[in-house]
Design brief:
- By secondary structure, the protein is α+β, with helices and mostly antiparallel strands.
- It folds into 2 domains: 46 residues, no CATH class; 112 residues, endopeptidase fold (from Nostoc punctiforme) (Alpha-Beta Complex), CATH 3.90.1720.10.
- 28% of the residues lie in helices and 18% in strands.
- It is built from 5 helices and 8 strands; from the N terminus they run ααββαααββββββ.
- The strands form 2 sheets. A 6-stranded antiparallel sheet has the order 3-8-4-5-6-7. Strands 1-2 form a two-stranded antiparallel ribbon.
- A hairpin with a 4-residue loop joins β4 and β5.
- The protein is rod-shaped.
């Protein structure tokens, strides 16, 4: 009698720990999807990612507009040569120096804030506002002004990115106010 009780208890324990019985109720097995039950009792699934293939984000190169003053392209090169790896919070200062060094403008601009740069470039230096709304479609050498009344940023479009006091392949995260360029005479 003892043997029968002992064998039956082993059989019951064996069935309790069987892998088929240990699955959650109502969840299907799959090698391509992960099935789960959320806290509300609803069933859900997600695809299982087995491999991750890294692919860089590629933005288009800047186009060269023949109508734009070539000195702006030279200003982009000068700014790129003088730029740093990280921002020094002196974007408008570096852009002003590059524009003066390339002789794109004849005197040093007076405004202190980057958000006011576009107004001064149009008013005093003959720049025109372009109808470009995407910074990646701005022509090479164009001056891009970002921001709002509280803060701003200015940069020049280079062939593969943007430059001010630092060089970046990505646009500024502030909202784009306008794109400015000076046309050759």
């Amino acid at each position: 009698m003892r043997r029968l009780v002992l064998l039956s208890s082993f059989a019951i324990c064996g069935l309790a720990f069987c892998p088929v019985a240990s699955r959650a109720d109502g969840l299907a097995t799959s090698k391509s999807r992960f099935y789960y039950k959320d806290s509300g009792g609803n069933f859900g699934s997600a695809r299982i990612v087995r491999r991750y293939y890294w692919k860089p984000i590629v933005h288009p190169f800047a186009t060269i507009d023949s109508r734009i003053d070539p000195r702006l392209r030279r200003a982009a090169t000068i700014a790129e040569e003088r730029s740093h790896a990280r921002s020094k919070a002196l974007c408008w200062h570096y852009v002003k120096e590059a524009l003066v060094a390339a002789h794109a403008i004849n005197s040093y601009p007076k405004t202190a804030y980057a958000a006011e740069a576009g107004d001064e470039l149009v008013r005093d230096y003959g720049f025109k506002r372009l109808s470009v709304r995407d910074p990646y479609h701005a022509p090479l050498g164009a001056v891009l002004v970002y921001g709002n009344k509280a803060r701003g940023h200015v940069e020049i479009r280079t062939k593969d990115g943007f430059v001010s006091d630092y060089h970046s392949k990505n646009r500024c995260f502030y909202p784009l106010r306008a794109v400015y360029a000076k046309f050759s005479s």
